[in-house]
Write a structure and sequence with these properties.
This protein is α/β, with parallel strands linked by helices and 297 residues long. The chain contains 14 helices and nine strands. The two termini are 30 Å apart.
């Protein structure tokens, strides 16, 4: 993860080194060499994702920054968006998301839960199915509104399993358990919120240079105070990704959406949310070159 970036671009290599120094251990080695099980553990995956996105931004920033009109990030990615907007330093952001991952992992151990993706059009609302499952089996809530036909639910294992059962009866094409260590973006994460708020309060935030559309509100966040408040609320609130992207596209109808980080999941979701939107994944050296060529033209 990210080794190709570090090998190709000194600016990306420097980002990985800065994060290693900030965290006091070689996260870069874990990213580049694994083992995968350790890298995907929540407390490591979160700073790794931030670092990868920050490394891409370091390479393209000089050419692209003047063109940026807004940013957004899915769950952990919202921290990367605030970093790109200059609201936090790389060192502070890395320490904060490492703490976020630790707290979420610890809470997942003490309050075990599950998450599942519900795919397809339902004959009833996902909210109604969650309410029914909560009453009959265990607490479960919508956690990610990714598209109109892709929602993730989160909560107690029994509640999540009940929603999966109900969803299939209500027309879902698939209901798939996700390989996660806790019930993220649900009330089961309440114990993590206090510790994370303390970490956020201890972190210096500045005014973002451009708006960051919030997972919690779907609206643009334009102040340090908003950033602090919304990043804490995000832990236990659903990620309203589809609504946020829709509102971004309405405000900036001619914008190019650029996904900075590993993979292209969000680029794949983009046209399912806004069919007319144009997006590019930008996580590898070849993708960066394509983006820079497009920016130059």
């Amino acid at each position: 993860m990210g080794k190709d970036l570090a090998d190709a671009f000194p600016a990306a290599r420097d980002v990985f080194q800065q994060v290693d120094d900030a965290l006091g251990f070689a996260l870069s080695e874990l990213c580049f060499e694994g083992p995968a099980d350790d890298l995907t553990a929540t407390l490591n995956a979160q700073p790794a994702l931030l670092t990868h996105g920050a490394a891409v931004w370091a390479v393209v920033r000089e050419q692209l920054e003047q063109h940026v009109c807004a940013a957004a990030g899915h769950s952990l990615g919202e921290h990367t968006a605030y970093y790109a907007a200059g609201s936090t330093t790389l060192t502070d952001a890395a320490k904060l998301v490492r703490r976020r991952g630790q707290l979420m992992y610890e809470t997942g151990v003490t309050r075990p839960g599950a998450m599942a993706a519900i795919l397809g059009k339902l004959d009833d609302s996902i909210e109604s199915l969650c309410e029914l499952a909560t009453r009959s089996s265990g607490q479960v809530v919508p956690a990610n509104y990714n598209t109109a036909e892709q929602v993730v639910v989160s909560g107690e294992v029994s509640g999540v399993e009940k929603v999966m059962e109900l969803a299939k009866k209500m027309g879902a094409k698939r209901a798939v358990r996700l390989p996660v260590s806790g019930a993220f973006h649900s009330p089961l994460m309440d114990p993590a919120e206090k510790g994370f708020k303390e970490a956020v309060d201890a972190t210096e935030f500045g005014e973002p240079a451009f708006p960051v559309f919030s997972n919690v509100t779907e609206a643009p966040s334009t102040s340090a105070a908003d950033a602090r408040d919304l990043l804490v609320k995000q832990l236990t609130s659903p990620v309203r990704w589809a609504g946020g992207i829709t509102k971004m596209s309405l405000q900036f109808p001619d914008a190019l959406f650029v996904e900075m980080g590993p993979g292209s999941v969000l680029t794949g979701l983009l046209t399912r949310i806004v069919p007319s939107a144009v997006g590019m994944a930008c996580g590898t050296p070849s993708e960066i070159e394509k983006l820079l060529l497009r920016a130059a033209s």
